[in-house]
Amino acid sequence: MTWLLPRLLLAIGAAFVGFIVGAAVHSATGFEALGLGLGVTSGVALLLVVDAVRGHRLLNWLRGNQQDNAPRDTGLWGELGYRVERAMRDRDRALARGRLELEQFLSAIEASPNGVLMLDAQEHILWCNRVAADHFALDPQRDLQQRITNLVRAPAFVAYLQAGRYGEPLVLGNGRGPGTLSITVREYGEGMRLVLSLDVTERMRNDAMRRDFVANVSHEIRTPLTVLSGFIETLHTLPLTAVERDRVLVLMTQQTQRMQTLVADLLTLAQLEGSPRPASDRWVGLDGLLMRVAADAEALSAGRHALRLRPETHAELAGIESELLSAVANLVTNAVRYTPDGGEVDVAWRLLEDGSGELTVIDTGLGIAREHIPRLTERFYRVDGSRSRETGGTGLGLSIVKHVMQRHGGELLIQSEVGKGSRFRLVFPAARVRQASDSALGDEAAFGGAALSNH
Ligand code: ADP
């Protein structure tokens, strides 16, 4: 009620002015009624003029953008201006808060790895995040208010959206590429719909790989098992001589060993996938490791090849010894297995300029045709299945090598030429290589053939 006192004072002031005017008119003209009339009129007029001026100032402020403060008047108009200004400022603050919350909410949805698309009851796009725009090949600005079914015309999507049965997600090819999307729709508000899209390309690929893997493993195990059960049947039913029995037992042992090797390789792969990254401060002497590999390779070769497998490297590698041993052994035994009698197998080590180290296994064997090289590290991929099995291969060796190298931050590089031989290189990053002496730098022989980097 702070306006009441100034208003009373103003009324008293106006009455006083009216009284003065009335008294002056009365004494000048001698007409009492005229003096009274003019006195009242001038008092009221004064009140009206003051009100008009203040009201005009407030109206002017209201008509503007209200950036500055309302006119700071006393009395009724002052309080009115102040109250209106406060209501406006409160409303502005509430609006700004609401806008900020909306922006935060939208940027949270924008950051979602899933595509989010809001549709009104007529399927017009109200909003979409960048992921959804990418999934559905939309322009997040230009395509707003457009009907989604005019822009995404895949019949399966249109039918799914319009059927209104959203219990199961729709699996759809991606609009921009060969990928696959899983699309879910949720209804909200009055006929509005939220379309959520998820890129499941990787998941589908992994599922397919897993299915292939299980099928391959089953096939690999079934073959020796069938052979074994055939032999067991033979032993049961046929009266064999001692020599025949021995031959059958030797063949059975071979099949059992084949299964053992396969299971061992599968376990190695499973361990590689499930265990943490190798520590970078556990050093393994490369020379000792090569000695062990060479002993096995020499036994496998049984003098059929010229082997040079023990270069003096004086190097140490940081990582897990069993994994490094497995990688190098796989390459060296492959070189022996895929090199005909009389061929050569060499192992060389060199330190590269950037501090990384390269272990190379070179053979003068069968070589590999260019088109097979990119697929060699796939599980169970074999160039020549029968030779691989004959020599005890599982088709998992190079897959294990690639895994080990990835886990150690390195890579496997393959060069090969049919009929000339192959060169498999293990490149270790500088952080995992420690060289005791610089004297053991291997020299790089010129070598033709296709090259592949397996990442
Ligand atoms: P496998 O157990 O069959 O040897 P790997 O994964 O070790 O399986 O090798 C995959 C395929 O790559 C082999 O089947 C073979 O055809 C080819 N391969 C590997 N190493 C050599 C090599 N040194 N020379 C020729 N071919 C090779």
UniProtKB/TrEMBL annotation:
Please provide, alphabetically and separated by semicolons, the GO molecular function terms listed in this UniProt record. Answer: kinase activity
* Predominant place of localization: membrane
Q: Which SMART domains match?
A: HATPase_c (SM00387), HisKA (SM00388), PAS (SM00091)
Listed A to Z, the keywords are:
ATP-binding, Cell membrane, Kinase, Membrane, Nucleotide-binding, Phosphate transport, Phosphoprotein, Transferase, Transmembrane, Transmembrane helix, Transport, Two-component regulatory system
What superkingdom does the record give? Answer: Bacteria
Q: Which reaction does it catalyse?
A: ATP + protein L-histidine = ADP + protein N-phospho-L-histidine
Where is the protein situated, by its record's location annotation?
Answer: Cell membrane
Domain annotation Histidine kinase: ranges: 216-432
Q: What does this protein do?
A: Member of the two-component regulatory system PhoR/PhoB involved in the phosphate regulon genes expression. PhoR may function as a membrane-associated protein kinase that phosphorylates PhoB in response to environmental signals.
Name of the protein described by the UniProt record: Phosphate regulon sensor protein PhoR
Q: Which source organism? A: Pelomonas caseinilytica
